[in-house]
């Protein structure tokens, strides 16, 4: 499924629709170039879960955890990780898909290191807007998508 969002608000709304449907154990893998809107989408997911307050980019912290929404949210960014072993040392390998719902920016840096059940979201810059492609690997994650 592909959706073109004309502006950042539309991309945020798309994230919110996913956040409203997010479930315990859900894994959302975000990819796309720097400035594409991965964090904007993740902020929408947080809003859809009812997370209050600011949701900054986790590039430097690796992960930010939000426990005030409908379900716990872990918003991670693996841009600065250099080796997949760091997913283990950071505790991600044992927590992703298990502990709350995870949204991971730059997940494509480490293909095949994520739970087999996930929703892959790719954001591409297209002119002024963004083209968002979704690929769910199972029916539970397909259920995260807003109706067309
Ligand atoms: N659909 C869109 N059209 C135009 N600009 C957008 C759109 N979505 C997001 N933006 C803008 O592009 C930037 C995306 O930044 P960010 O979400 O931090 O990207 P990333 O996390 O992928 O590096 C923001 O400045 C945002 O306002
Ligand atoms: Mg980002």
Explain how this protein is built.
With 148 residues, the chain is an alpha/beta fold. The protein has one domain (2-142): P-loop containing nucleotide triphosphate hydrolases (Rossmann fold, 3-Layer(aba) Sandwich). 26% of the residues lie in helices and 26% in strands. The protein is built from 5 helices and 7 strands; from the N terminus they run βαβαββααβββα. The chain has helices spanning 8-21, 38-49, 85-89, 92-95, 139-142, and strands spanning 2-5, 27-31, 63-66, 73-77, 101-105, 119-126, 129-136. A 7-stranded mixed sheet has the order 1-7-6-2-5-4-3. A hairpin with a 6-residue loop joins strand 3 (63-66) and strand 4. Helix 1 (8-21) packs across helix 2 (38-49). The longest helix has 14 residues, at 8-21. It is globular. The N and C termini lie close together (9 Å). The mean pLDDT is 95. Adenosine-5'-diphosphate binds next to helix 1, helix 2 and strand 7. Magnesium ion binds at residues 38-39, 57, 77, 105.
